[in-house]
Write a structure and sequence with these properties.
By secondary structure, the protein is mostly helical. The protein has one domain (10-71). It is 70% helix and 0% strand. It has 3 helices and no strands. The two termini are 40 Å apart.
């Protein structure tokens, strides 16, 4: 398992420690959860941005449930 070292000011460290304790998580769990939540949010925002671009260009395509099921092989 890899280890990453991050430097925080004393004030930042206290905020992180207090929030980890409040959340019932270790600092490692808190930072990992926060990172992956941010990553997921960025991915979602990119997907929305791509959809909106296609919508402006008029290239979005919608399928009814029957066509969707056929498209995925059900």
């Amino acid at each position: 398992m890899g280890v990453i070292s991050i430097r925080f000011t004393e004030k930042e460290e206290n905020v992180i420690r207090n929030f980890a304790e409040f959340s019932g998580k270790s600092i490692s769990e808190l930072l990992k959860d926060t990172f992956f939540e941010k990553l997921e949010n960025e991915y979602d925002l990119k997907a929305i941005e791509d959809f909106e671009k296609k919508e402006k260009l008029g290239t979005t395509e919608f399928l009814n449930i029957d066509d969707f099921e056929k498209a995925i092989g059900l």
